[in-house]
Amino acid sequence: MDGSKINDKAVTEEMLLEEGYRKYSGEDLDIYYSKDICAHIGNCVRGNKAVFEVGRRPWIIADNGGIEEDIRVINTCPSGALKYIRKDGK
Ligand code: SF4
């Protein structure tokens, strides 16, 4: 699933916060997570434990992965619980 969009529309921070996503800020991109949407399938944790680690606080640390790596893992989330917004305008 494309983590930069919802229903084919590019996500905005306003949209995500309104939908109940929580923000995990990084230097190059911000990751957003909705626990209500999460299906606990674990692709994120299996994908990169440095970025996504259940039980750690915060459980998502965007800067522990590169921008492309973060996006790769986010896009494996099947439920849409993970979204991202790049800060480089790409
Ligand atoms: S990949 Fe998505 S649905 Fe699966 S545990 Fe991670 S956030 Fe939840």
UniProtKB/TrEMBL annotation:
Protein name as annotated: Divergent 4Fe-4S mono-cluster domain-containing protein
Pfam families: Fer4_19
Domain Divergent 4Fe-4S mono-cluster: 24-87
